[in-house]
Sequence to fold (311 residues):
Amino acid sequence: MTVPLFKVEKTGLLTSFQDLGRNKHQSKGVVSSGAMDTTACQVANLLVGNSNDEACIEVAVQGPSLTVLAETATIAICGASLSPMINGDEVEMWKTLQVKEGDQLQFGAQKEGVYAYVATRGGYAIASPLGSKAYYGKASLGTPILKGDVISTSSEFTSLPSRGIRHSFHYPKEGTIRVILGPHEKHFSAEDLDRFFSQPYQVRQGDRMGYRLHGEAPLGAGARNGIASDAIPLGGIQVPEDGQPIVLLADRQTTGGYRRIGTIITADIAKLVQIPAGGTVHFEQTTLEEAYAAIAEQQRFIKHLSIFAQN
Fold:
């Protein structure tokens, strides 16, 4: 059974349904997509009693305008602070919110971060091509969000007590991002590698496919640029001929032929994607062991929140 939940009055800039992605199909050339900030997406779902892999509405920079159609509903908004409002009054994030028929959910000024997530109790009633609700428009995978659409939820509403988290999620415009070196570090000189980890990079341009960075000194001058095309992981850092890094993200291509100087650890992807254009990135070399420890810590947090949400 589905229940009408929202009418889309305005779509916003880059509004889409996203979950944790269709990660099992990259070997077939299928882009994984999924939430840019998977931590915020999972927290929003757990707060409203969903499984952590349910889809949210991902909102970027300039949010949508939605009219509530349901008699009542429970939602949560997590991630970037994009001034969410109900009926013109700004509301708290990282907690459950009760909305009723006729309410207007809108977003205002971008205060901190880039990507926010709107979860609803029961999830969104949309198709799951190849096992995921994540939208990827270039391949017509998933359900787009268009002006005038009616967005439905997957089940009847049940009561849920108000709850939230005491969080420390802040999204500064400058951040240190941990990187595992390789696999093509031999294509760069020792000076290049030292420069990569010592100079700051400005985020020049970013979207769901990747972030273009700019440093004062380009990398790999005179080095062989091409490599045999190989698989590209989330957070892979390509260095094309201009010597300026490109970090590949949720909607990245599945293979590529540019040198990769390193890969951002999974635990730091959310930190990177929440740095806006004009912000500053510092890279720090880390080890595989430290990367495992960092993602394990994140997973423990999600597990503990999941246990709390079931009570």
About this structure: The two ends are 25 Å apart (CA to CA). The longest strand covers residues 72-81.
